[in-house]
Amino acid sequence: KAKSQKGKKITLKIAKNSIRISFDGGRRLDLSKMGITTFPTCILKLADIDELDLSRNMLKKIPSSIQKFQKLRWLDLHSNQLEELPEAIGTLQNLFYLNICNNKLTTRNLPEELNLLKNLRILNLGLNCLDSIPTSLGALKELKEIGLFDNALTTIPNSVKKLPKLNKLNAKRNPFPDSKQQEEHANSIKRIETLYLVQEKDLCSSCLKMCQDERDKMNKLENVTPSPSKKPSFPLLLTPNSSAKDNQEEWRLR
């Protein structure tokens, strides 16, 4: 019993033997499902790795020393017991993937420094205790995917919904006031590809014909009965089933 409370001790030898080569040739330290309760300081000696997987453990805290991993591009902390993140996480300027799904994070304990991760492409905040999303996340201009499912959100700030490169947003199972609002959040990232701001009289005959042809095509598309839309997929955002919030411990250990 005492051993399980302490958790498994990770030595430098164990850590070195847990390094794998990722598909793109990067060095990935995989310490997932190791029963770790405290951040293993020995891995600071391996700070030149490209990817770090500490998912499915029992970590309650990530130390400020995480800033030593300046080459880190990929950080997976999902399914732990994290209640906060260090401000130093904002120093990981090469990070493009951050998964902190299925923890105990609150809005108050999300560091403002997250908005410094200018190269972040994928952010998973699902299955936490968030009642709002900081508007400052609108600074993540490279963000393409964001997971916000299974939280306590009643709205999503426009600064996030209107991120220029965002094309996947999962906000399922949040207590939005209007049931239709959730669909609106999913559809809010549709982009207007073409917009004409010129009067017909200002166009030459060939340009006018081209515009009229485009308008006719759009009108035909609008008159076609739409087929049932496919549900959006989120291949890189780990999403548990709908009852996962009631079974987090079980899901964590899978």
UniProtKB/TrEMBL annotation:
Residue stretches making up the Disease resistance R13L4/SHOC-2-like LRR domain: 27-127
Ranges of Low complexity composition bias in the record: 225-240
One Pfam family named in its UniProt record: LRR_14
GO cellular component: cytoplasm
UniProt signal peptide: none
Keywords: Leucine-rich repeat, Repeat
Sequence segments annotated as region (Disordered): 219-254
Protein name: LRC18 protein
Organism per entry: Sula dactylatra (Masked booby)
